[in-house]
Amino acid sequence: MRLSITLPLLTLPGVAVAHFQLPLAATTRRPPFRGTDQDEYEFKWPIQTVAIIGAGPSALLAYRELTEVGLKVRLFERDSVPGGNWHYTEEVALDAPVPNAPSPIGDFVPSFAPVGVELPYSQECEDDAEIRRDHRGPKPIWESLTSNAPSVTQFNQWPWPTGTNWKLSHYEFRNYIRAYASYLHINSNDENPATAYNTRVELIEKRINAEGEQQGWRLWLKSLVPTGNNTSRATWWTEDFDAVVVATGRYNAPVMPSIPGLDHWVRQFPGLVRHSRQYRRPEAYENQTVLIVGASVSGSEISRDINPWAATVYQSFRGDNDTTAHYRLENYLHRVPRNTTFVGELKSFLPIAEGTPIQSGLIELVNGTIISGIDSVIFATGFRYSMPFLPQYYDGALYTPHEGSVATVSPFLALDGSHLRDLHLDLFYIRDPTLAFLGINLGTQPFSYSDYICLALAKVWSNTAKLPSSQTMWKMHDELVEDRGGYSKNLQFLGPERSTDNIRYFMGWLNEAAVKYGGKQIDGLPKYSAEIGRYWNIAQYGGPLEERPSVEDGVLESLGLTTASESGKARQSYNPMYDDAW
């Protein structure tokens, strides 16, 4: 059963009205699919060529698995090197807009060649730092960031050397990922024609072949390559593929809360009211009074980083009343330094006269308290999913396709950027499983988990594992949605229990397929992983998490905030080894 819903329209450049259907929910998840040939999904065209968008850890694993089964793969990366978020630079993104930019352009605004020119088309341009920054996309990590999971975070083909520290700097992770890319011969200096670095995917459209049938995908591409000290060459072109893997991550579009007066403060004090993605070093906040908004992963860790340098740190947050499974706020409050001053939820940024310094500004809390004397504000308020190259798939989008492309599609991307719908196993787009997504889950270990989903991709697309029928995939999806509490920002959350269940599912399905069709099998996670996790919790948190006294309730009570009931909390266990957010 499907329920049609009318949503507000979002108008994008060059973009006709699309209609979508929202699947209703049902019961719990099924065991691994077993059925007859009639129960299996049949692809409408053979899959021989695949595009991968991104060059982070999951993209590298996808490249490995897809090429091992004989598929021809092209990897597109907007940055100059592989590594995804693990490419630190001092370059920072622009101040996050308030109100938030629409999710379809929350990451970037697509750039196309001048109208009427023949592709490929190139033009020389004077170097513009803002254009290059927008094309590359500075990553949301800071100089002192270390891994928040032991060094068992690794590629199974490329284990860390014996004696490697459990806590690793982002420099070590960067080098590790690049070394693995070199092992696969797809590092940026390998000059492998299968890779296209400095290349951003501007648009993906479903193609129509010469017989008028849907077949494969067309990618609209733009490269931006330095040609001299102050010049670059921009080139636009298209390439066609049978299947596409989206591995662009989920830390691209910042979220700024809707607080009265915040928009004026952002405009009036550029560089002083920032999102956590812009944070780089604590020295910039020496002797300052800093307000950090949010106390989850990045909020608590930036608070620790700034604490030795700042004169005063205020930490603002609101009560965690979300009863869907997620990592609760109390897990992070333990990391906030004791001399931090907790304050409640923000109500408004009061007007301030032009030319007046930020220190004279007044910030009102929901409980009526007024804060003043703030030198800097950092919003550690998270990110949204943003896929500017799929604008036609957003709810309510207006879209005009290029000639030779499908005119009407069914949206599955939430306009607020909170979640992705209509995915089988959070991986395959049910309406057309030649489109797949990696790295969209929260609360899991992306290195180890990607081993399973990338093998599933390779086996399904090489016809050595079968997807169930569309009807069965929809039923499984509906069951998954209900199990996860409906469509919300936590729809893609896994956590340790769901991660373990999913890995068992993939093992059963893929190993059974290997027996039937051939190909490699896959093992479960090492048995010592749980023991390592226990030692890590002792080192990082002073003991097992379940035995720690909770600090959240006392802090919330002192601020007049509320939290979810104890019965709601029971579903939401925490393991930092399965927490890759920042």
Give the strand content.
15-25%
Tell me, what's the shape?
globular
Share of helix among residues?
10-25%
Gyration radius (Cα, Å) is 24 Å
Q: Number of helical segments?
A: 12
Order of strands, main sheet, comes to 7-5-4-11-25
Oligomer: single chain
Overall mean pLDDT stands at 86
What does this structure look like?
The chain is of the alpha/beta class and 582 residues long. Helix content is 23%, strand content 19%. The protein contains twelve helices and 25 strands. The strands form eight sheets. It has a five-stranded parallel sheet with strand order 7-5-4-11-25, covered by helices on one side. Strands 13-20-14-15-16 form a five-stranded parallel sheet, with helices on one face. α5 (297-306) links the parallel β14 and β15 (312-316).
In short:
23% of the residues lie in helices and 19% in strands. With 582 residues, the chain is an alpha/beta fold.
